[in-house]
C-alpha cells in the first residue's frame, strides 16, 4: 500500500462468526472497512459490520450497487461520496468503462437510450481467481470467445446507472491476456459524431483521469492503461448504418476495481483525490503502447568476441 494516510489492517477471520473480541473492536475503530468479496459474503459481512457499529463500509462487490440508499462510487459521474455516508458501492469493471463513455451522452439526450449494443472484451483476470477449464493457459492462449451472452450480471447495473430508461444488448468476450478491458458501444446518435465527442470532452474537462482521444486507434491500446487509473474514450468519426461506435479502455483491476476504490476512499475522507494513485496521463496516448515485455526485458549485452 503506497498511501501516506492509510494504515491497512487485514481481517484474518473467514466469516463474521469467526471474529474474536479484539478483531471486533479493531473493526469498530477503523475509519473505513473495505470489502473485496463476492456478493453473498459481502452481504453477510455488511450486516455484521453494521451491528458492530463500523463507521464506513466500502463494498467492492455487486451486492448494493443498485441500492438507492447507497452512494455509487464513480466520481466523474456521481460526485464524491458524501462525508456522512455510511456505505459506498464500488462499481464493476464493465459498468465503469460503459458508463464513463455513455452516460454523459444520455444525460444530454444526444443518443437514443434504447438503441445501444455493447461489446465488452476483457482479460482473464476479470473472471476472478477461481479455477475453470476455459481459463487454463492451454485453452485460452491464442483463443478468444464470447461468454455469458445476454445474461451477464453487470447488465442490470449498467442499465440502472445509465439512466434515461436505457436498455442495452450486452455481449462479453474473453481475450487471451491477463488484464485490460476494451468496451465498444454502438449507439444511434441524435447529432453528429463530432458533437458526441465534444460533449465528452466538455464533461471530462475537469477530470484528469479520463482522456477523450481525437479518434479511435492505437491510442486506446490496453498497454496504455494497464497499471494506471486512466480511462481512455474515443468516438468513431463517421456513422455507418445509423450507428456510431463509442469506445473506452481501462485496466479492469485498477480503474475497474482497486484504484477506483482508493479514489473513492480519498474523496470520502476529504483527502487529496490522487493520494496513492498513479498520476494522470500528461498527454493523450497514441501509437503502439509499451508492453509488459518491453518494460521487463533485460538490456541487450554488449557485443563480445567470445562465444
Walk me through this protein's architecture:
This protein has about 300 residues and is an alpha/beta fold. The chain folds into two domains: about 1-90 and about 255-285, 3-Layer(aba) Sandwich (Rossmann fold), CATH 3.40.50; about 95-255, Dihydrodipicolinate Reductase, domain 2. The chain contains nine helices and eleven strands. The chain has helices at about 20-30, 40-50, 75-80, 95-105, 135-140, 155-160, 195-205, 260-270, 290-295; strands at about 35, 55-60, 70, 85-90, 110-120, 145, 170-175, 180-190, 210, 230-235, 245-250. It has a seven-stranded mixed β-sheet with strand order 6-7-5-8-11-10-9. The protein has a four-stranded parallel β-sheet with strand order 1-2-4-3, sandwiched between helices. Strand 1 (about 35), helix 2 and strand 2 (about 55-60) form a beta-alpha-beta unit. Helix 4 (about 95-105) packs parallel to helix 6 (about 155-160). It starts with 20 loop residues before the first helix and ends in an 11-residue tail after the last helix.
Q: What CATH architecture of the largest domain would you give?
A: 2-Layer Sandwich
Q: State the low-pLDDT regions, or none.
A: 295-307
User: CATH homologous superfamily of the largest domain?
Assistant: Dihydrodipicolinate Reductase, domain 2
Question: What fold name goes in the CATH topology slot of the largest domain?
Answer: Dihydrodipicolinate Reductase, domain 2
Tell me the β content. 15-25%
Domain N-acetyl-gamma-glutamyl-phosphate reductase dimerisation: 93-252
Organism: Enhygromyxa salina
Protein name: N-acetyl-gamma-glutamyl-phosphate reductase
Region (Disordered): 280-307
Amino acid at each position: 500500500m503506497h498511501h501516506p494516510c492509510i494504515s491497512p489492517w487485514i481481517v484474518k477471520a473467514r466469516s463474521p462468526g469467526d471474529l474474536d473480541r479484539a478483531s471486533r473492536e479493531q473493526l469498530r475503530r477503523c475509519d473505513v472497512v473495505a470489502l473485496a468479496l463476492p456478493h453473498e459474503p459481502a452481504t453477510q459481512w455488511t450486516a455484521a459490520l453494521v451491528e458492530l457499529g463500523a463507521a464506513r463500509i466500502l463494498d467492492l462487490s455487486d451486492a448494493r450497487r443498485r441500492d438507492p440508499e447507497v452512494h455509487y462510487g464513480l466520481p466523474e459521474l456521481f460526485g464524491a461520496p458524501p462525508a456522512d455516508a455510511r456505505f459506498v458501492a464500488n462499481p464493476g469493471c464493465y459498468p465503469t468503462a460503459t458508463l464513463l463513455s455513455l452516460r454523459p451522452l444520455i444525460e444530454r439526450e444526444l443518443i437514443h437510450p434504447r438503441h445501444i449494443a455493447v461489446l465488452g472484451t476483457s482479460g482473464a483476470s476479470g473472471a476472478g481467481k477461481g479455477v475453470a477449464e476455459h481459463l487454463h493457459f492451454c485453452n485460452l492462449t491464442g483463443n478468444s470467445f464470447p461468454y455469458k451472452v445476454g445474461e451477464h450480471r453487470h447488465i442490470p447495473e449498467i442499465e440502472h446507472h445509465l439512466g434515461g430508461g436505457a436498455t442495452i444488448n450486452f455481449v462479453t468476450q474473453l481475450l487471451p491476456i491477463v488484464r485490460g478491458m476494451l468496451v465498444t458501444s454502438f449507439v444511434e446518435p441524435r447529432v453528429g459524431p463530432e458533437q458526441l465527442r465534444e460533449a465528452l470532452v466538455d464533461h471530462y474537462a475537469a477530470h484528469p483521469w479520463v482522456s477523450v482521444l481525437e479518434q479511435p486507434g492505437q491510442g486506446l491500446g490496453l498497454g496504455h492503461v494497464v497499471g494506471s487509473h486512466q480511462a481512455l474514450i474515443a468516438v468513431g468519426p463517421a456513422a455507418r448504418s445509423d450507428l456510431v461506435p463509442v469506445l473506452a479502455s481501462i485496466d479492469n483491476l485498477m480503474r475497474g476495481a482497486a484504484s477506483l476504490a482508493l479514489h473513492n476512499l480519498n474523496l470520502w475522507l476529504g483527502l487529496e483525490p490522487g493520494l496513492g494513485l498513479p498520476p494522470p496521463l500528461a498527454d493523450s496516448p497514441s501509437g503502439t503502447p509499451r508492453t509488459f515485455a518491453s518494460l521487463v526485458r533485460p538490456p541487450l549485452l554488449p557485443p563480445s568476441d567470445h562465444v
